[in-house]
Amino acid sequence: MVKGSNYKKMTAKEAEKEIAFYGDHGYVSRMITEDDIRTIRKERTGRFGSERLGCVFFGEGGFVCSQCVSDMAFSQKSQAAKLEFSGKSAYFVLATYMEVEGKPCVLESVKKFDGNLFIDFGEGNSVQDLGEYYEKTYKDVLTGAFNRRFYEEKLRLYPLDGGIAMIDVDDFKIYNDLFGHNVGDAVLCAVAEALKEHVRNNDFLIRYGGDEFLLVLRRREKEEFVAEMKKIVQKMRDVAVKGFETIKISVSVGAVWGKGERAEEIVGRADEFMYRAKKTKDLLVAEDDEGKLSASAEKQLVLIVDDSEINRVILKEILRGEYEIIEAASGEECVNALKKYGTKVSVVLLDIIMPGMNGFDVLEYMTYNQLLSEIPVVAISGDETGETVRRAYEAGVSDYINRPFDARVVYRRVKNTVKVYFEQKRLISSVTREMREKEEATNALISLFGELVEFRNDFGGNHVKNIGKITELLLERLVTKTQKYNLSERDIFLISTASALHDVGKFAVKEEIVNKPEKLTDAEFEEMKKHTIYGAQVISGAKNFRNRRLMEYAYEICRWHHERYDGKGYPDGLSGEEIPISAQVTGVGDAYDALVSERVYKKAVSHEQAIEKILRGECGAFNPVLLECLSEISEDLKKL
Length: 640
Hints:
By secondary structure, the chain is an alpha/beta fold. The protein contains 24 helices and 18 strands. A hairpin with a 4-residue loop joins strand 9 (about 205) and strand 10 (about 210-220). The two termini are about 35 Å apart.
């Protein structure tokens, strides 16, 4: 940026020649007036009116930048420049303050880079293609959609004309729990690929959360947008997961069309509507012209299970006005229906006393397959002894209906049961979302701090990201091989998050030692080893940190990730299972990534060479079970 009072003063004709000059050199230019600057500021703060200026990417869709160079140049009567990205395309933006016919203006010029553009992180570090860097920063590795960071940094404050849909994959937790994370990942990828078919040049598909996508369809009329959302809900029912064709995917969608509102305002409403849609699942809930909810509502599904046809007919007659009814004449038919419809079923009316597979057998099946926590059951029986009722409640039913049926009692109990379950799940989802957002914020801060350490150490920022992913992969494999360490999904998340801080103690080591290209002296190496102790001291000082378990893992990792299974590591010479599993796993991940990464003091080796070196013990002795895990995730490591 060049500041000062040496700006140009020119006539309108001279300004036209200036614009033509930049045009001759491949720039697209425009003259921005003082009124235009006011409009830009209103757009950035969300206080825009009917007139919109737009951003610098003519025809590219663009964003309202938090750092607008034209605004900078105007405010400081200077020249300002920056690089901006749209996808893998890089643009040079130049803004020059001047006075035209005595009025303050900014000449804004934009040029697209047609060739490759690189960033050099400094001597001894790799030169990286900026387009690739942009992709790594703003793309979700699993699905190829944009990530949450892209939304927060590039889209959240942008005023939109068009539609935003919050899309939640129904029953995603069940896929993960029953089939494993690999199948859960496959479901997410299948959903993302189906959604990408609706994305045009100026649209965005964003993986907003674990099982949530944000679909931004710009420049759509409202009717077109809503129609497209209905197609998406229908289309998802036919999406297949390779190798798991029995999985029936569905989505709950909250859709809002906006004009001139900031994205975050529209997203907030879409999110609320999505949670309304989850009440039924496989549903679109959209906002009508008056800001009210309009659901493409399919009736909630009630499964009536009774071996008596007359009982099924009576119950169906009581409920069919408000619910869609499916019937099962036996426990076996009920199980088949549950396999087919899953948690699309809102409530099961279950006869307890049936020949063959009775009601208790069905409840046992639902409990074993984790369906009872998702689908409420109202038991049916004519047994008046009380024993059946007691056993039914102990088995997990939500309510009980006696025969003969009282229509008003049946209707009210079914309605109340569905309502209570929905509200319970809504509250759980709300609390889970809030916890996840806090954890994401914590994760982001920890990763950022870890990256600062790595940049200070001239390692680049990828080491921290890689360690987290390698640690996660190793832990997920470990829990399939042994229950010895009693690790939950939350433990895996916390350990992989805390791994970002493994080298935080290097801040206390002299930079000339950390970044020395030659071999360290014995004294220097002894000082370098102290980074484990320094890091543990830093973590110990964070006494007021809210997530105590995360800090416990961080302490273990910082202090002991250089310990080795044979007791020949440092700083405390721990051996075997004296070393916390969090530190053991991080140590393996650190060794692998250090081998395949270039450093100021060494060249990188290939993936195959790195695996071989670790298995041969060239990086010290590691837990044999972890070495098995490392070999088994080898193909996944290649993708990092």
